[in-house]
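Q: Could you write out the predicted structure for this multi-component system? I'm mainly interested in how the pieces pack against one another.
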Amino acid sequence: MDFPFTPRYIPMNRRRRIYEGKAKILYEGPEPGTLIQHFKDDATAFNNKKHAVIDGKGVLNNRISEFVFNQLNALGVPTHFIKRLNMREQLIREVEIIPLEVVVRNVSAGSLSTRLGIPEGTQLPRSIIEFYYKNDELNDPMVSEEHITAFGWASPQDIDDVMALAIRVNDFLSGLFLGVGIRLVDFKIEFGRLWEGDMMRIVLADEISPDSCRLWDQSTGDKLDKDRFRRDLGGMLEAYQEVARRLGILNDNSGPAPTGPTLVQ
Ligand code: 5GP
């Protein structure tokens, strides 16, 4: 996607912080309509009840998410992503976030397995899309399209666009990961409204990384995602590095690097 200006460098301490989440910070961007998305090393689970700092995680998620969003942009899936700025930051378009977590599932795991008693690892007969209302105080409750339209979080047309984009993202990601020996079990994505004058487009926002996906090694079933942290399995950074390495983002010979991975130039 073309971007008509070169971003000005603004020192960290001069930037206005717009929002701080559990794993990312949003700063004002160099031009109106832009923001800087900063990836932190914080890992949280169970609505912040569990917290740790995993040295280098933010760098890996920045690189993995950049890789995925660049490819989605190239395929014509509209996203907020403009470009990566440095090891931890991306330039993004400012969007009005739709307060929904959209979960796409291909294989039963996590809350679906718990809620419906389906053994983890069961291939689903078709991909399933679920909506959760983004609200920490309420623990992100699952909601239906009826709730979403009744409470005005999104219109029926917005929901149609969100579902169509979610399916395209799932098709792309499933193939991408299958090609590197990884089974895409499920993932969470978020969407925003991008205003261009009076015109509005729904675009993919936030991030796509092992923090927001379940990724299982195709042959061993090893978990290569945030469940390593949620379930105290250890080796979270190594798992994220393995995902990055398979996607060709890291050099094959780069071992664990607490100060961040080696860039492939
Ligand atoms: P589950 O509903 O089974 O806990 O999660 C389904 C999928 O969505 C998993 O891939 C999980 O990582 C992702 N997911 C659900 N909620 C969140 C969240 O609040 N943050 C992140 N990063 N991922 C989430």
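A: Regarding packing and overall arrangement: The longest strand covers residues 182-196.
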